[in-house]
Amino acid sequence: MTIKTWNQHTVKKHNKSLVLKTIKEHFQISRASIAEYTGLNKGTVSSLVNELIKEDLIYESGPGESSGGRRPVMLHFNKLAGYAIGIDLGVNYILGIVTDLNGNICHEKFVKYDHSANKDMKEQLFYIIEKLINLTPKSTYGIIGIGIGVPGTVDSNGKILLAPNLKWRNVFLKELLQEKYNIPVIIENEANAGAYGEKRFGIGRDKNHIIYVSIGIGIGVGLLLNGRLYKGKNGFAGELGHMAIETNGKKCRCGSSGCWELYASEQALDNYAKDFNITDSSDEHISLEKLIELSNTGHSKSIMLFDKVGNKIGIGLNNIVNIFNPEQIIIGGRISAAKPWLEDAITRQITQTLWYQQKDLQVDFSKLETYSAAVGVAAFTTEAFIQDYLKTI
Asked: Which residue has the higher pLDDT, 9 or 287?
């Protein structure tokens, strides 16, 4: 009897998940169409739909078009039943968003992180989270989770093992936030989150073999292989910003030398700017935004600077193409804003890969731009909420 009850429970959970997924994937759908899509009988569909309506995860609207006979009542996924907070924790900024359960951005907050002010980044993070909590509309399930994308190595339990550009090692941020806000928290590598954001909502929707390269102060890489996020055995895959591209190169904060991110990132732009004698009168360090502004005015040295960094980006991408044979590379992160000044140099390098690797290869800049990681980690959070909800059936 126990086995029978357990089997019935498992079947019901599977069927309810299937019905919810089918409704979520359609703008509107009738009970009869759900039965056709899922293969479930109409009585089972009707019973599960009634439960989902009571739980406020779906709702009914007026009659749809009839194919003969009575016009059907249409069902919709209730994207406003709860909200997710997604945060891209950059090295020199924090971007936070609130999304509905369909990934639409409802509110956002951005702060530039000033290392020279000696402020604790965790305090800045708390500030952003509390602002977003206050902006979140009332709903049945409230804030269903907080997702944080971090520029570093995160283990399968959400522990931040190493984020060299943040100078973090063995940081238990997940436990800290869950205790402080009593809300489920997901910590993920920001490049993994960016890759997932582009796959779900951006330029990678119709691709299954995607390499997402997030370029800011450092470089992170998210790997979507065969349509699934690849993390490796312990969740550490994708640290390609730390592959060496220069023999006896510069010393990196990770402890190695000659790392790709030292030559192809925002910090590289700042360092090369000094060599090119490009300065900002208001600051010791010249910003990406300032260099883009100069390039837009035809400033030849700034354009040459982006060409040099684009060339270094392309060298790293060549290695990635030869290793993974992807169908799409997506360049994201803050540096994607400089697309007009990087694209030619990157393309020149990519055409030097093995000729057969270039077949069917598409190189794109992010559609979601600076939102990729925040949207992606919010999507992880929403999916975890739905999975946890289904466990309670």
From this structure: 287
